[in-house]
Amino acid sequence: MTDSARYPVPATRHRIEQVIDRSRFLCTIERVRTTEDAQAFIKEMNAEFPDATHNCWAYVVGTPGSTDRIGMSDDGEPHGTAGRPMLTVLSHCGIGEIAAVVTRYYGGIKLGTGGLVKAYGGAVQEALATLATVERVDTVTVTFAVGYGQIGAVQQLLPTVDAELLEQQFETDAQFTVRLPRSQYPLLTTAIQNLMRGSAVFHLTESTP
């Protein structure tokens, strides 16, 4: 099962090109955090390749293999020969927040239904083979205060919960603002409450990568 807080996503836009029976196929991969991002990316590709025979696409928004927010289009190719095989590849690639547009320039030789399925799905597979990814981590930003006597304990605690110190202020007490993985947040709050004997107050701000 995929960890919903951590999973790979495309690091940057990536494109490959293939020629199959004189037809030119370009596959462009992009990270999309929302369906609006996906539609904007597709629109951008249509504008970049307005003279293409087809600009077929598919996307999976969310965790790898998620079916909540998906989309696909054959863009004029025979039904089920482009968008569906592209989506199948994306859904099983183990990468989240991902969209692909395969641009085709027809070369004069018909590929047939099976040939099209293989060409469109294969173009996405070829692009994924050289796609750089980064880990997407759900994080939270939290502010809390401790007494001056607990500063050393807090400074030792932060690295153990993968917390990044964003800001600290020293007034009547010592105030810390940190960012850490959402999964580590309960560990942080429990440790700080133990230090403060249950009197700590946390101000939480959700953050996206």
From TrEMBL:
The lineage of its organism: Bacteria, Pseudomonadati, Gemmatimonadota, Gemmatimonadia, Gemmatimonadales. It holds the Pfam family Impact_N. This is YigZ family protein. It comes from the Bacteria. InterPro entries: EFG_III/V, Impact, Impact_N, Impact_N_sf, Impact_YigZ-like, Ribosomal_Su5_D2-typ_SF, UPF0029_Impact_C, UPF0029_Impact_CS. Residues 145-198 form the UPF0029 domain. Belongs to the IMPACT family. It comes from Gemmatimonas aurantiaca (strain DSM 14586 / JCM 11422 / NBRC 100505 / T-27). Gene3D superfamilies: 3.30.70.240, Impact, N-terminal domain.
